[in-house]
Amino acid sequence: MHGPAQAGWLLVALCAATGSYCLLRMRSRLEAQRRTAGEEALMGFGMALMALPAAVLAPPRWAWLGYAAVFGAAALRTLWAARRNRHHLHHLVGACAMVYMAAAMAATPTAHAEHGGGGTPALTGALLLYFAGYVLVSGVRLLPAPVLATAEGGGTVTGWADRTELAMACRLSMGIAMIAMLLTL
Predict the structure, then answer these.
(1) Do the Cβ atoms of 128 and 182 come closer than 8 Å?
(2) What's the predicted TM-score (pTM) here?
(3) DSSP code, position 52
(4) Shortest CA distance to 44 belongs to which of 136, 167, 184?
(5) What is the CA radius of gyration of the chain?
(6) CA distances to 17, 33, 46, 69, 101 from 74, in Å
(7) Alpha-carbon span 173 to 105, nearest angstrom
(8) What does the alpha-carbon distance between residue 9 and residue 64 come to, in Å, rounded to a whole number?
(9) Quick one: the chain helix, strand, coil %, rounded to 5?
């Protein structure tokens, strides 16, 4: 996307780190967790690629169309998965937002280098409101909850792939990154 180079690099680092952790989460014992982690890894790495500063990479128009095609396919797959789990609706909105941003950049390929606007203000505003609400709700869910004391040895040990608080933190960071990307559109 466009914006200051330092902010772009921070966004790339955040999204790549989130995508990397989501790849680790794909080692979960639960299939639903693995599937969700895969969707989130695709989103994280896709956002990292799209956030590369224009000074480093000014993709041609066909690259933006490629992003739109990949995330369009992800949106269709997520739409199918949303029949079983409503959490996939958020992934659907995220994939559609990525398609929208890629299509806006494809429509105005010089906007990436010139820091110009490329999207529809009403749709951009609606997506900003959605992701701002998602970030606020996700942040509240991360607040510490009172923990009941358990007997020694009675707790269960979970691996990195099954740490729900880390998965929620990743979702929160990707929501914040999505807001940053939409603001630069």
Answers:
(1) yes
(2) 0.82
(3) S
(4) 167
(5) 18
(6) 20, 17, 11, 9, 15
(7) 23
(8) 19
(9) 70, 0, 30
* Two structure tokens written together for 92: 């659907």
Amino acid at residue number 16:
A
Polymer length of the chain: 185
- Dump pLDDT digits (tens) for 55-111: 677 788 888 999 999 999 999 998 988 888 777 788 899 999 999 999 998 887 655
- DSSP helix/strand/coil, 51: coil
Tokens standing for 73? 């396919």
Residue-wise DSSP of 72-127:
HHHHHHHHHHTTT-TTHHHHHHHHHHHHHHHHHHHHSTTHHHHT---S-HHHHHHH
pLDDT, one tens digit per residue, over 2-36 is 567 888 899 999 999 999 999 988 888 888 788 88
Structural domain boundaries in the chain: 5-144+162-184
HSE-CB for 183 with a 13 A CA cutoff:
14
